[in-house]
Amino acid sequence: MTDVKCIVSIILPVYNAESWIESCIVSILEQSYNGPLELCVHNDSCTDSTIPKLLNFKSALSKKGVDLILTQNENGFPKGCGYAKNRAVESSRGLYLCFLDADDVMMANRIQMQLDAARHLPKNTLVGCQVVREPKESTVRYTKWINSMTNEQLFTQMYTSNGPTIVMPTWFCHRHVFELVGGFVEGQSGTPEDYIFFLKFMKLGGKLHRINEVLLNYRHHPQATTHSISEHTIWQLRLKAVEKHVLTKWKTFTIWNAGKQGRKFYRDISDENKLKVSCFCDVDKKKINNGIYIHELSPKKNKPRVPIVHFSVAPKPFVICVKLGLTNGQFEDNLASLNLVEGEDYVVFS
To answer: Which residues of 122-137 are buried (b: 16+ CB within 10 A; e: fewer)?
Structure first.
């Protein structure tokens, strides 16, 4: 049962996070927010010193006015991030949920700023923020993407390989968001529970809001859970979503990129959507001079043949299968020259 007196519940799943847990907890203690707060930790069968290190902070958390609620997976085998997050939420009493990963660090004003925003937004809003990466030089393009999307792009760029446009470690929301979606998918390592949650949330009419201030140190390291998720798994989720929510609304469309990624997209979409592809477009003269893509792997006797044209003469709308930020701005300039509206005239799938 929700206790509205406990305004914010920090949701913290942990598994073998001994290298980071202390700095994570210190960031909780340093929060400027002084209202009712609880830390809901689910121990997903840690085998290192994560839990002893956490318990060393119990007195300090109590003095700060933070109730520590610790639950545990008893069977000795980790059940995954989705399972751990669900158990932590189930143990919580807060009207608002602040998600946090054990390897990340919050800036001192994170909870106060996100709570202030959430209170003035519809309760079906997922609130995020900008981040700083550690090490600073890691995932430069990804970090820029997280921090620089427009409010409209939070919705239109949800099909890219980057995953949720409001990145999971920054999630802050009314409890209604969790209840609306029904919690996280519970799977073993390799399950993208955050992206599955996000796509379902958006399907249910969810709203997004990013605070344009850095409120989280989002660490990048080899042990991060995200590295266990295969590109194929994410590809299939993205493909299914863009087919269902975008391609069903279009009678025809152009695939922008006659190279590897564009052709893979064409091969993997449904036969119904293949028939909607009017052409590929590109800037590569060799591809354009070839004039046509033949789908040799098709089981059909008469192999599908799709024209390849210069982007300037290709009909809209477009599915963009070109990676952003890799051409020194050339692709972005070409796209801008067409004066298209993102979300209507094109969708990014790169």
So the answer is: eebbbbbbbbebeeee
Residue tagged 């079906």 (tokens): 124
Q: For residues 314 and 262, what is the distance between their CA atoms, to the nearest angstrom?
A: 15
CA angle 103, 109, 115 (to 5 degrees): 100
pTM above 0.85, yes or no: yes
Asked if residue 319 lies in contact with residue 255, where contact means CB atoms within 8 angstroms, the answer is yes
pLDDT digits (tens, 9 = 90+) for 126-166: 999 999 998 888 889 999 999 999 999 999 999 999 999 99
**38 with 94: CB under 8 angstroms?**
yes
∠ CA 136-162-92, nearest 5°, is 85
pLDDT of residue 221: 63
pLDDT level of residue 224 (50, 70, 90 thresholds): low
DSSP 208-255: EEEEEEEEEEEE--TT-GGGGS-HHHHHHHHHHHHHHHTGGG-S-EEE
pLDDT recorded at residue 144:
94
Query: What tokens appear for 206 in the block?
Result: 């969810």
CA dist., res. 281 & res. 264, Å (int): 14
The DSSP secondary-structure symbol of 17 reads -
Contact 276, 247 (CB under 8 A): yes
What the block records as the tokens of 130 is 């900008």
Residue 108 is encoded by which pair of tokens?
């001192």
Q: Quickly tell me which residue has 């409209």 as its tokens.
A: 152
Q: Give the bridge partners for 320, in sequence order.
A: 256, 348
Estimate to the nearest angstrom the gap between the alpha carbon of 2 and the chain centroid.
27
DSSP per-residue letters across 299-315: SSSS--EEEEEEGGGPP
Closest residue by Cα to residue 177 from 232, 252, 127, 120: 127
Q: How confident is the model at residue 227 (pLDDT cuts 50, 70, 90)?
A: very low
Task: For residue 26, count other CB atoms closer than 10 A to its CB.
Answer: 13
